[in-house]
Amino acid sequence: MITKFFDEYFFHPASLEYSCFGCGYNCSYCFAKRTSKSLHGDIKQAVNFLQHKGKSQAYKIYKKGYPICLSNRTDPFSPPNIKSTEIFCNVLANENDNQIFFQTKGGDLPRIERILDSLRNENKGIIYITITSLNSLSKFEPNAPNLENRLNLIEIAKGKGWGVAIGINPMSEQIAGLREYEELIDICEQRGADFFLAAGLYFGKFKEKLTEEEKSKFTSFPNRREAQKLSDSILNILQKNHKNICGTSDDYIPLLNFYQKHFRKHTPLYSSFLNFCDKNLKSGERIYMDDWEYSMLERCGDIADFDINSTEFIFQEDWNKWKIDSEAKNLRTLRELVLYLWKKNTFQFSATTNNFTENRNGELFYKP
After folding, report:
1. pLDDT of residue 313
2. How far is it, in rounded angstroms, from Cα 207 to Cα 359?
3. What pLDDT score does 48 carry?
């Protein structure tokens, strides 16, 4: 299925997702296989979507040329998916110039090369490759490609003009130590990786869905806050020698700038606002709502005013704060959401917080 993709609003550049089939890599820490009701894709439906006129909001977003994620829930290059991914990309290249955001752990490299070659230059975006360790991949990702396969994919992707991000996700001392992470980053950089994103290992309420074999691989099961604290303790040391790595609770503006560099159009990203301020404002200068609205929506184009039920964008933890607000429940467009965030001053929960000061009247001022 091809659907609207706003699960990571203001953080992910893609507006659509092709969900593909079940992955088959069977990673022990995988959320998708426990949280998604169905991990399947209908390639006939996808081809029909790409080739024929539709009335859905997803189709309108597609025809306007916004990026497509393959896939946030399954691996597009895993054995159950690679054939449908091959068909999908061949059809897309003949129909439209949407850029692609691949999320993968690698796979059949000659076939992946053919898929990349089938796409137009205009379809090129970013390939996000998950590599969680140098020495423990087979333990935690028993059916996934080995390390060398993924390192080779970095070189292939870079050689064909794609941006390459490495997901150290999850990052945990249960999987690798500091020295191993240092070496992992060095090796990936040597192969051509551009950027690294780290996130903590946690299971929360999904711990109960682990099999006994999966549970035996872990010594503890931290909650989200504990997991983030543990991964940040590693990340903070890594960042002393590597400026191209960030975490999900960190200053992730450099990562978003990397996304912006590779995508002509994208959903709103916080980095757009901060970059606007850097370019147009002096220290201590007041920021107005028009600055916020313009900078966040400038590269969104028509999608800014599509009726796409923008309450879907709101992270669950944020929604718990906002659900009593009747205005939040009725948000429909990206523009309405952006203006709502300004009105409630909630955008300051983002990574840009340290770049502003606020006076008693609630007026914001730029602090580079």
Report:
1. 57
2. 45
3. 87
